[in-house]
Design a protein that fits this description.
single chain, mainly alpha, Rna Polymerase Sigma Factor, Chain: A, Arc Repressor Mutant, subunit A
Length: 193
């Protein structure tokens, strides 16, 4: 039985109209979009993830009937939105220093005493305890995470100074700091639980 235009065909082209055009768009634009994103996030793994997000959205929403200029413009706009979301998430993570880790802790044995001397003792004991806890946490992190956190929060270096010290780009230093803080939070939660 011959197939007519009204009857479905078993060919892949009939199952996914415009699939060939999408593949052409992908092959022509994946590298430029990746480079565009990489230049703004500074590391290959995140640039690859964001590029994949752009093309996953394109699979779902791209109107392949538009001309190529509009399609390319749309892809870059989606890429720009993905980058903005990435950096929003990056900067949403709270930044804390070692001086904030032990805030509010008081050893039980000095709670009965009062006055300036007891207050100094409680403060000093709390700082020692916080420092020990920070050191313990840092020891459980990978070396590059430990190093970036030490430079940024213990030595209080800027992102640029940290990047120079570690021999990496500023973008990589920011990403490494973000990942290190996330890992430290997870390690800290595991230790508390």
């Amino acid at each position: 039985m011959a197939t007519t235009p009204e009857q479905p065909s078993d060919s892949p082209a009939a199952e996914a109209p415009g699939r060939g055009l999408f593949e052409e768009i992908y092959e022509a634009q994946v590298v430029p979009i990746y480079r565009f994103i990489y230049a703004r996030v500074g590391n290959a793994p995140d640039a690859e993830d964001l590029t994949a997000q752009v093309f996953m959205r394109a699979v779902e929403q791209l109107d392949t009937t538009r001309d190529m200029g509009q399609i390319v413009s749309w892809l870059y706009r989606v890429g720009q939105n993905a980058i903005a979301d990435y950096w929003r998430a990056f900067y949403r993570l709270p930044v804390i220093g070692t001086d904030q880790v032990g805030a509010g802790w008081e050893p039980a044995d000095t709670s009965e005493r009062s006055g300036p001397e007891a207050s100094r003792e409680r403060s000093g004991a709390g700082e020692d305890r916080a420092r020990k806890q920070v050191d313990s946490l840092l020891r459980r992190l990978p070396a590059n995470y430990r190093r970036v956190l030490e430079l940024r929060f213990i030595q209080r270096l800027s992102v640029a100074e940290t990047a120079d010290e570690m021999g990496i780009t500023r973008g990589n230093a920011k990403v490494l700091q973000y990942r290190a803080l996330r890992k430290a939070a997870l390690v800290g939660e595991a230790a508390d639980g």
